[in-house]
Amino acid sequence: MNRMATQKQDEFLLEAEQTRTKPPPLYKVLLLNDDFTPMDFVIVVLQKFFGMDRERATRVMLQVHREGMGVCGVFPKDVAATKVEQVVAFARQHQHPLACVMEEN
After folding, report:
1. Count of alpha carbons within 13 Å of 64, Cβ hemisphere only?
2. Is the pLDDT of residue 2 over 70?
3. Which residues pair with 104 in a beta bridge?
4. pLDDT of 46-61, one tens digit each?
5. Which of 15, 20, 27, 48 is spaced 20 to 30 Å from 58 by Cα?
6. In the sheet where 26-32 sits, what is the strand order?
7. What is residue 75's three-state secondary structure?
8. What gap in Å lies between CA 45 and CA 102, rounded to an integer?
9. Where are the beta strands (DSSP E) in 1-98?
10. How distant, in Å, are the alpha carbons of 15, 44, 84 from that of 51?
């Protein structure tokens, strides 16, 4: 915090200068629909990497299926990037083309 001295009748007062930093931007992690990745695999991904229960994971999977994409969560940039990498690596390891991306919230 920066401090600024101001003079008032031979005495100095220290005044706190408010410096506000805005919080870092958050990023949405999205799964994108494809015609090859099984729905059950998408549910497993949502449970494993995003801590969803089966019911919520099923809702998000259906959103991906019907609308072309679904939000898995909102995170700081480094966490979002790690989640994307983990999901893509896991999908490739299981030979699925599931796409996972992030975009600023």
Report:
1. 30
2. no
3. 27
4. 999 999 999 999 999 9
5. 27
6. 69-76, 26-32, 99-104
7. strand
8. 16
9. 3-8, 11-16, 26-32, 69-76
10. 46, 10, 14
